[in-house]
Amino acid sequence: MAFFDKLNGIAQSVGExxxxxxxxxxxxxKINGEEKKIAAAVVKLGELFLARLDAGEAADExxxxxxxxxxxxxxxIAATQEELENLKxxxxxxxxxxTVEEGTKFCTACGAKVSADARFCPECGKPQQ
Length: 129
Description:
Elements: H1 2-54, H2 61-93, E1 104-106, E2 113-115
Antiparallel strand pairs: 1-2
């Protein structure tokens, strides 16, 4: 009988450990779900705050420094979009004009013009191929 009692005790122990593992997994999933909700709310909050800055609302110095970075990125995007539109227009018109001078290329990280023999981008410092 002692053998069956011991076997029964082991089975109960395994059952309790399995139940604890399942409960632990459920709680971890709940935490992850809440963290995702927080991340989405942070993005939404950032978008609302950015809209206020775009509307001209003032903010502290640290915030304005980050906002200046965003403005700089927007300027790079606008310039790059303009270059892209120029390339498309030239292609559509059949023109063979080149917008990039010989001996130059664009940085793959930030899009800045760099000389063809440059090893690093002068704007962002990323290695060039």
